Amino acid sequence: MIRGLILFYLNIKPTHGYEIQKFLQMSGSDQWAKIQSGSIYYALTKLEKEKFIEVHKEERTGSRVRKIYQITESGIEEMRRELKEELAKPIANVGSFKFMTYPITGTLSKEEMKVITRAHIKDLEEQLTYWTKWKDIKTKEENRDLEYLSFRMTINSLNDQIEWHKELLNHMDQYIALGESAKTYIRSNDFSEISDEMMDTNGDDRLQYLEKLKGEILKDPDNAVQNIDKIIDELKKQRK
């Protein structure tokens, strides 16, 4: 991401890293695109080594020498490649390790999870305040352009994340029980013995199986292993 942005900027005019950094800060792009200022200078050094940019001239400001970079012909090609790659990427990642839940709830103590989750909710709420403020400044409800949609998408995501973590916080005992049952199930089974035929299910079958699995664990954690074994036996019979 940062490489494409630097090359884009240098394709407009030769400049130095500090100007690019100030532009990102002024426009808010350092927050919106999650770009750290230190990464700009690292990327400039790397791009120069790769000969995608070169030193146009050097300027002295007091005791410091500032390098002014310009893009090369190969850099223009690299810029186009980087930007095509960025356009093809999803805006937000789909899926998260947290969605598995049980490795976390089956390992960390209740107090640890409470402290971490509360702190994370506070951080998410601060981000939500920031993004909501800037949405109100920069966009109008009647405008359905990309800028408005970008703000709405981010704000909706933050609200969803806050709700997810509050659910974990409010029903932590339930999810701790799920984590413990998952550990018992893993301890009691050798998954390498599950046949390829059993694993070769379509998406709907697998989803139904997982939902039933989760339901049995939550309903009766103490007998989760026995109940899950029954589900597997039922699945085997259905495949005969």
TrEMBL record:
InterPro entries per record: Tscrpt_reg_PadR_N, WH-like_DNA-bd_sf, WH_DNA-bd_sf
Any Pfam family hit: PadR
Superkingdom as given in the UniProt entry: Bacteria
Chain ranges of the Transcription regulator PadR N-terminal domain: 6-80
Protein name (record): PadR family transcriptional regulator
Family matches, as SUPFAM superfamilies: Winged helix' DNA-binding domain
